[in-house]
Amino acid sequence: xxxxxxxxxxxxxxxxxxxxxxxxxxxxxxxxxxxxSDFILKHRPSxxxxxxxxxxxxxxxxxxxxxxxxxxxxxxxKVFHITPANVDTVFLYTVLLSFLVGNINIVxxxxxxxxxxxxxxxxxxxxxxxxxxxxxxxxxxxxxxxxSQFQVxxxxxxxxxxxxxxxxxxxxxxxxxxxxxxxxxxxxxxxSISVLxxxxxxxxxxxxxxxxxxxxxxxxxxxxxxxxxxxxxTKPSIQDCxxxxxxxxxxxxxxxxxxxxxxxxxNTQMLLMxxxxxxxxxxxxxxxxxxxxxxxxxxxxxxxxxxxxGLILSTNIDSIAQLPEHEKLQTVGxxxxxxxxxxDIHALRRTPLGSALQFNHIWDGVDLVKRLN
Length: 373
Known about the structure:
Blueprint: H1 5-16, H2 27-42, H3 47-55, H4 58-68, E1 78-82, H5 90-100, E2 104-109, H6 115-128, H7 134-139, E3 140-144, H8 150-159, E4 162-166, H9 169-178, E5 184-187, E6 191-196, H10 201-216, E7 226-232, H11 236-252, H12 258-274, E8 280-286, E9 289-294, E10 311-317, E11 329-335, H13 339-343, E12 349-352, E13 362-363, E14 366-367, H14 368-372
Parallel strand pairs: 1-2, 1-4, 2-3, 4-5, 6-7, 6-11, 7-10, 9-10, 11-12
Antiparallel strand pairs: 8-9, 13-14
Helix pairs in contact: 1-8, 2-3, 2-4, 10-11
């Protein structure tokens, strides 16, 4: 819904009238989230929403409660969440964590949200209308208003004890210029890569399947979606097997539409113009991806302007030491590499190939549960 500032103030007042006798990981909170997981799965939603439901299943939430035990202060916060436009489900992970530690939440949905986000919001609306979802509805308010309504953002920022922003650098800067807050958890622009060492055709087929899982969701626009592949001591013939297998995965599960393909080519030209030192050795074009191989990809700065949509850059390295470093490097998905070698990679996250998009309550090195409590 589109809200005027006066309407926001009324809704805020209604939330503040709710009882405040709920505590972190109280059983009723765990039960509500677990019932939400079951409710989602019954409706056979999109794969991205299924992943969310799997994360918030009862066993996982109970394990979180056991992990934190009595570490958490039994104190309630008011949290204002600002969601991203390009990753349709990620915001709900932090909303549910905030709910589980006893907070009340107002969630601003992006006016540029996609179909998956609308599907998820529809499921939430249907769930909170049930007896099992009433508690979630009483402590989480989902609203939508144009980003240009700065006064609404200012009102909600003044109301909250903590603010969570999932968004790019520009969005975070703009929001903080309009309404700075003392206690903010922000997730700025980041990018991710994959490091693969393949020695057989079987390796190539398995790695292609796992890589497809990482890159195809959210139109490759999530921070943890791999934008480049660094081949570690992998023969060209094995790399070719990988691309053949990836094409098969993409043919079986087409993801990118014509507008994504067009944006992919436009972005490629912009990247090549930005760094004239980049000289492609070869390229492979497919409806679901466009691969450019470079003799050297010594800087990750180019990935800062990478817009996803199925564009994959690749290059060869002889050792992990040749991987470039960058402060915005979030996730490195790896295959065929020992645990000791992975520890030498400078990144916020290191995860086996195929699990880059799996959410964890420790995100970008931040313990979200403790920060939200």
